Amino acid sequence: MPSPPHVAAFQKFADQIPNHLEACIAFGLFMESERIWAANQGSLTEAKYRNYQEALLNHHEIERYAIQASEFLSKFGNDAVASKREAFLQASLEQYKAASEKGHSTFRKWGSQRR
Question: At what angle do helices 20-39 and 5-16 cross, to 10 degrees?
Answer without folding.
Answer: 140
